Each structure stands twice: as structure tokens, then as C-alpha cells.
């Protein structure tokens, strides 16, 4: 399936208009069936549908270990993905019905979800990375996101071990890009609890929920976090870095994983520069 | 309720780090009760909760006319909004359970929704606006969005009659900003079927669904549309303008509402400049 489509537009620039071709981000709605039950319809960029399905189930807490995923079938013609899972919680269908539906980007978390999340221990990874290494990876991250550049309408996420980007995913939804990333790592058998996630999109509480469930210790975003995301990162031991652009970044929580040894603190800098 | 919160961060710039204050976009989860039934939990910026609730119900097709809204109570302490509606469709609760839940920005539309939408006649408004007037309004739109500038994490939407911006709304979710806008107009008794909506966010199929239900003839976005949004705009007679920044904009659909009389078509421009 194509991830972009060609269209004809009128491009206006000042007092000049021209008819020209343009590329749009494609979107599809696909159905996700779990153990023969249609549970949800997901709207996303038509790529990595298997990863999308698995990442969604991981983020929703319906899947945790590889051996619980018995079967996965993508049916492109019918726009559906069928998954067979073992050991589903007794109330899994009820839980799905209780799930909050939210309007738009900051997708909701039910109170029951929150309780389940709160019960998880904080993340204690000793992973650390320097600002210089983050900058290097950010440059690579900007480079890989071709689709974003082609259409301007797509978010990217990438997984890194701190040395290079292992792979990246793209989607019209920033949440989807993260779900695809987590799902891709899961299907490839790559642990994520010692990895860094890069994201082009803003960080809401919902994105942070995905990090918490997958035990990812560091999230670097080019955009802003919300207060719910910062609170969740603080509570769950996740290092949250936002506004990471060029040489700049904001470290919102758990700076113990940022290696500041080559960095002068502002006070020292003032002193050494004689201000 | 405050729409931003102060936090302490470490700001890194090159090889200098400093501890400093930063402002974050606030988020709350509030429950929406319709006729005493808790139907959904919505995650949004804590402002205009009454507009958010009403806009959500309008976009979901559960509310259409002012006289059907019998009562609206915002309970900030309990983070809930209670709405009493008249003449709900017989299957309204079932419909809500069937609603697709999607992961992230491109929130889903069920097939039943689509059928209902397809039955609506195309929008035939004779509203027209020139690129120069759009540019003028865009400048004003950039100016009003203070919260976005303060935190970098918030989307804006504004309603215009083509001469000025009547009002604007803000939210962490671009869908929510549009729902708040439509809800605000509804509660103020302002018709929207002869107005222009400005949006800071990308235009997905879901945003376009809101336009279709509220019969809004022109949508101007600073960002990209998806192919589903363009297809829906084309089918429903909506003029969709994207990438509207500075002097530039792309007209994706129904250019008959863009007044090109002061604009030279590219071919003419080439001819007059001797190229």
C-alpha cells in the first residue's frame, strides 16, 4: 500500500497561483480482531500494520510477552489484522468497553488503566547518554524521516541503543508512530527496556503510558510535553527530554540518565567567562 | 483552572546547562455524562469545558439544534460535565459502544458514522474569500495564540466571517480545539455554515468530519491535510486550504470559494514576465 498519494492542487504564493501536483499522506482504517472478536478500528498510515496492531495491544496492556502472541494475520484486501492471544485477562472485553474515548491528540486513559499503571514499579535502568550523543542521533533522526519531508503530515519515531538508530517508523498519528515502533521491536525480539525512543511529536500523557508499559527509560522529543506527561515520567522513573532541536534540549525529569560530565553548568560557565 | 503549569527543568544549549523554570500545557481528564449516563472521558486543556462537551456531542452527531440541549452543568471539582439532551436517536448508547477507538491523532470514524455522513448533501455555500484576506486573517490568527507561544504544546482554532476573527480556542489536541470552537459558536448562537475555520493543526479525516457535520464551507490550516481529509472535503463540497503560511497556501479542493480575481495564474505570470 502506498503511504503517499498524488493530488492536484492550486498553489498560491503572494499574487501568483499555479496548478501543480502535490503529495498527501495516505490514511486507512483497519479493523483489529482479537481471538475472532472485532475490538477496534484503527486509523493510520498504511505501513507496518502488523507492528501497529501489536504495538496497540502492548500499549493497551493486552499483550506483554512474545509467547502470548499465538498468531498474527494481516489481510490488506479486507483492511483487517487478526491476532490470536493467549492468557487474556478475564475481563478483557469489558475493559475494552470501559476504555475512554477521547477527542483528538491527547487520547485518554481510563481510571482503571491508571490504577494498573500506578501499580507498576518505577523504571530503574542505568542507561545514560550525553547531550552530544543525543544531538548526533537527532541529526540522524531528522534525516531518516523522508515521508515527513515529502508530505509534511507525518510523525516519526525511532529506537536507539544510544549509539545509532536501530530503526524508525512513521505515521500520521504521533501515537501510532510510537505504537508501530514498540510493535516492531516486539516482533523482532528486540528488548526496549534498555533503549531510547526519539519522537517528532508532542508528548502527552498517553504517549508516556506507552513508555511506562514497555519500560522504556529515555524519551527524546523534538516537541513539547504536557504536564500529565511530565508528571507520569517523574512518577515512573522515565527521563523525559523535550524541545530537542539543534544544540538545545530541555530535560524535564530524571536527569540522572543525562551525562553532564562534558557540560558546564550555567553558574560555572558564567564564572569561567568572567560574567 | 490554569491552562499552563510552572515546572523546573534543566535547559541544555550546546555545552552549557542551566536549571530554569518552564511552562507546560496543562491537561485534565473529565467525564461527560449524557442524560445521567457516563459515556466518555475526555482528555483536554482545562478551558472551555462546556464548549468542549457540546462540540464533542455535535461532532459525534448526538446534538444538532440548540433546543435539543436542555441542560449543561460543569462540575470542575469532580472534573465532569453533565448534559441533558432531548430526542436522542433510539440506538444512541449502542452507537457509542460501536464507535471506533483509534490510537492517536487520526481518531477513527466507524463505518456506521461514514454511512450517516455520506447521506448528508454537499455544502453549497457561496461564501468566497481572497488569498490576501486569508493572509490578513492568518496574521491575526498567529497573534491570538498566546498559550501556544508560551508552551509550544497547544493547538489553536479560530472562527472567522472572512473579515475578522470572531473568537478562538486552544487545546493540546487539534481535534479538541476544533470541537471547542464549534461548541462555543453553538452555545453563543452563532451560525457556522457561513464561516471560515482556521486551524494550527494537521487536517485528518476526523477533523473534516467535524466540518461536514457543522456545515462549515471553508477550512484553512497552517499544516498538511491527509488524503482522507482531501477526499472528504472534495465529496462534501468543502474548500480545504493547507500549508497556509506567510504568503503561501495550497488549495486542495473546491477552489470556487477562493477569489482569484487579483491573482495572476502561473501561466499568465510567466507570459507577462517574458519567461
Topology:
Two copies of one chain form a homodimer.
Chain A: E1 4-13, E2 16-25, E3 28-34, E4 37-44, H1 49-59, E5 69-75, E6 80-85, H2 92-98, H3 111-118, H4 131-144, H5 146-151, E7 155-160, E8 165-171, H6 174-188, E9 196-199, H7 205-214, E10 218-221, H8 227-236, E11 239-245, E12 248-253, E13 264-265, H9 266-272
Parallel strand pairs in A: 3-6, 9-10, 10-11
Antiparallel strand pairs in A: 1-2, 3-4, 5-6, 7-8, 7-9, 11-12
Characterize the structure shown.
Two copies of one chain form a homodimer. By secondary structure, chain A is of the alpha/beta class. Chain A is 32% helix and 31% strand. In chain A, the strands form three sheets. A six-stranded mixed beta sheet of chain A has the order 8-7-9-10-11-12, with helices on both faces. In chain A, β9, α7 (205-214) and β10 (218-221) form a beta-alpha-beta unit. In chain A, α6 (174-188) runs parallel beside α7 (205-214). Residues 98-112 and 269-275 of chain A have low confidence and may be disordered. β1 (4-13) of chain A pairs antiparallel with β12 (248-251) of chain B, so a sheet runs across the interface.
Give a short overview.
Chain A starts with a strand and ends with a helix. In chain A, a hairpin with a 2-residue loop joins β1 and β2. Mean pLDDT of chain A is 86; it is low at 98-112 and 269-275.
Amino acid at each position: 500500500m502506498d503511504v503517499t498519494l498524488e493530488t492536484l492542487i492550486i498553489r498560491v504564493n503572494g499574487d501568483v497561483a499555479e496548478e501543480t501536483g502535490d503529495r498527501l499522506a495516505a490514511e486507512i482504517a483497519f479493523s483489529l480482531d482479537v481471538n475472532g472478536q472485532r475490538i477496534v478500528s484503527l486509523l493510520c498510515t498504511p505501513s507496518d500494520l502488523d507492528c501497529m496492531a501489536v504495538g496497540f495491544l502492548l500499549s493497551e496492556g493486552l499483550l506483554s510477552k512474545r509467547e502470548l502472541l499465538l498468531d498474527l494475520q494481516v489481510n490488506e484486501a479486507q483492511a483487517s489484522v487478526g491476532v490470536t492471544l493467549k492468557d487474556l485477562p478475564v475481563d478483557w472485553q469489558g475493559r475494552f468497553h470501559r476504555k475512554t474515548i477521547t477527542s483528538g491528540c491527547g487520547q485518554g486513559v481510563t481510571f482503571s488503566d491508571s490504577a494498573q499503571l500506578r501499580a507498576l514499579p518505577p523504571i530503574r535502568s542505568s542507561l545514560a547518554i550525553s547531550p552530544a550523543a543525543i544531538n548526533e542521533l537527532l541529526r540522524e533522526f531528522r534525516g531518516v524521516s523522508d515521508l515527513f519531508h515529502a508530505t509534511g503530515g507525518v510523525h516519526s519515531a525511532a529506537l536507539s541503543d544510544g549509539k545509532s538508530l536501530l530503526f524508525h517508523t512513521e505515521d500520521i498519528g504521533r501515537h501510532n508512530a510510537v505504537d508501530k515502533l514498540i510493535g516492531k521491536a516486539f516482533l523482532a525480539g528486540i528488548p526496549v527496556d534498555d533503549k531510547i525512543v526519539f519522537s517528532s511529536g508532542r508528548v502527552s500523557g498517553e504517549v508516556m503510558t506507552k513508555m511506562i508499559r514497555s519500560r522504556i527509560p529515555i524519551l527524546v522529543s523534538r516537541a513539547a510535553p504536557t504536564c500529565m506527561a511530565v508528571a507520569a515520567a517523574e512518577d515512573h522513573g522515565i527521563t523525559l527530554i523535550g524541545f530537542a532541536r539543534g544544540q538545545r534540549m530541555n530535560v524535564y525529569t530524571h536527569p540522572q540518565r543525562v551525562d553532564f560530565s562534558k557540560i558546564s553548568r550555567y553558574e560555572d560557565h558564567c564564572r569561567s567567562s568572567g560574567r
